[in-house]
Amino acid sequence: MPISVDPGISKMELALAARNHGMPLEALTYDVTPAGLHYLLIHYDIPQVAVGSWTLTVDGAISRPLALTMEDIKSLPQVTERVTMECAGNGRARLDPRPIGQPWLDEAVGTAEWTGVRLVEVLMAAGLEDGAIEVLFSGMDRGVEGGYEQPYERSLAMGDASRPEVILAHSMNGQPLLPQHGFPLRLIVPGWYGMTSVKWLHRITVLTEAFQGYQQSHSYRIRTQEEEPGEPVSRILPRSLMIPPGVPGYPDRERFVSAGEVTIRGRAWSGFGPINRVEVSVGDGGSWIDANVEPATHHYAWQSWHHIWNAAVGSYVLSSRATDATGLVQPLDPVWNLGGYLVNATQSVTVTVTDRSAASAR
Amino acid sequence: MPISVDPGISKMELALAARNHGMPLEALTYDVTPAGLHYLLIHYDIPQVAVGSWTLTVDGAISRPLALTMEDIKSLPQVTERVTMECAGNGRARLDPRPIGQPWLDEAVGTAEWTGVRLVEVLMAAGLEDGAIEVLFSGMDRGVEGGYEQPYERSLAMGDASRPEVILAHSMNGQPLLPQHGFPLRLIVPGWYGMTSVKWLHRITVLTEAFQGYQQSHSYRIRTQEEEPGEPVSRILPRSLMIPPGVPGYPDRERFVSAGEVTIRGRAWSGFGPINRVEVSVGDGGSWIDANVEPATHHYAWQSWHHIWNAAVGSYVLSSRATDATGLVQPLDPVWNLGGYLVNATQSVTVTVTDRSAASAR
What we know:
2 copies of one chain form a homodimer. The first copy, chain A, is mainly beta. Helix content of chain A is 10%, strand content 35%. Chain A has 6 helices and 22 strands. Chain A has a 6-stranded mixed β-sheet with strand order 14-15-22-21-17-18. A 5-stranded mixed β-sheet of chain A has the order 2-1-10-5-6. In chain A, a hairpin with a 5-residue loop joins β1 and β2. At the A-B interface, α1, β5 and β14 of A face α1, β5 and β14 of B.
């Protein structure tokens, strides 16, 4: 099905939102996101895999084809990477017209500790042949997209695939992968949007030509018309998010805060380098104040920031804006594209500040 | 805020759907739902609780006020119950006009094994005084609803609170509760919709008058106009769901199946008693065929069913319909009410059956 645009939130989009989910923003408080709170975006169905009958096939332009069991994979040197992962479509539902797809607002993110083996070790064990230029990753999940049935598949150029932080992970936060996160094995590409980190991995194929599959040549490309080839989505643009302060309303989830000193806390991240600036606005005419940003403790995980706000009675729209070490800055307004990718515009949090005695009398 | 009706899916409803989530229907394959796949409906924010400084207060019309630590609770006799839990609002988004609230389609369900202490043991330890008629459960989650700030609170009549299957649970599937499921302690009322099973429990108060709080006297009542007092929601009406067969499309998630024998599998449950009949329709003029229903293995958990369908090339709408031991049957069409509760109408799954050679040529 070609990507199309539609101004109203449809039952089809709602069906996606009912099964996939973001990270509730109060979970920004955790350095590592607890099980079940990390965002999920699953194109097809979650496969149920019996690890005893599963193997990882490594084939294509290699000298030693491999069929690795989980035992084989765990016998190789193990590494753990703390990684903030984000969906390339995070923010999509803020575009107008809204591209059809999972209708994310701000929360398609999470941070986990992934344990497994470096991809480059497996590639070296297989022995790359001359002309090897890409590595294709095939998941066990299948569906009909763009008019034909396919497994979920994505490739990486050899230079990206060979980076030491790219891992084949069997564990998340010290536990075997949950079914919905790719059990028994998935790719993890730190710093890149989540579409690259193929789940339910069962085949790695070394290619001598560029992969032209649907998820590579059609989806996850930045373009404004169907006819354009577009630029591929890769690394994560900078984003900051705050823990919405105070207490929420239900069902509107707008915020209520008592007047006085309020510490606004959040996280910020970029796939291009560390965050070196987060600014906060309390909606008083567009002025921005520098927040305190903690230094990066892990190369590919989010950083903490906070700002003390002296909140007076009134109505506010709070925002934060991150800048990374390469100078990339979050835009204030979403930038439209056909697929609804890379929408890293600043978050807006509507807050009503009341004095405590009035609040308790509400 | 009063409940109102609105025909279009709003950004407010989308914001609820982005943080809460249903159980992806392929997870019906698991007897016990894996972590992170069980449905979640959270009115306010997920509290972050340090169990070391947490106690459960038991007060009100009792002779021995208690302040129980987690150690105290774990020193009492422990029980485990396998329970299918469902949101009272499951199916809400299928109503027209659609009540404002979490816009569930079919999947607000999950089954877990909950471990803890029987509530009745704690009540006996506290010693009920004369005139005790209800038990109030207060969570640590707070928000503004119906115009005032409140903790999430619900009560049970003493007869319901004293049932042996009602437990104070500290573990889910053998692990400490995840933050989003009520860590460190929650109520579990098997057979009832989820609104009763208060999470992040920190106070139990025995009452001599009926509780009149918002979640009891306003929300979770069946009525067609604001002015009616309405009947309270309690036990789960029968529902059956099937694992959508074949492979999904994306983003539409309609199903593609190869012609031939297809085993349709699903689960069915009721809070009123065991399921003794599930019928399946393949949309051929409303005829219903009995599926094979497995006997209940746990009093409060779903039962498996399956039906072998000889699928010929064509387009179909598959449905299933459960009947419980008390004679309650799922309706074919949703029954409207202002809050969008108890919508247990039959599921519809749209399927295209192709012959395999045509499918691979798509």
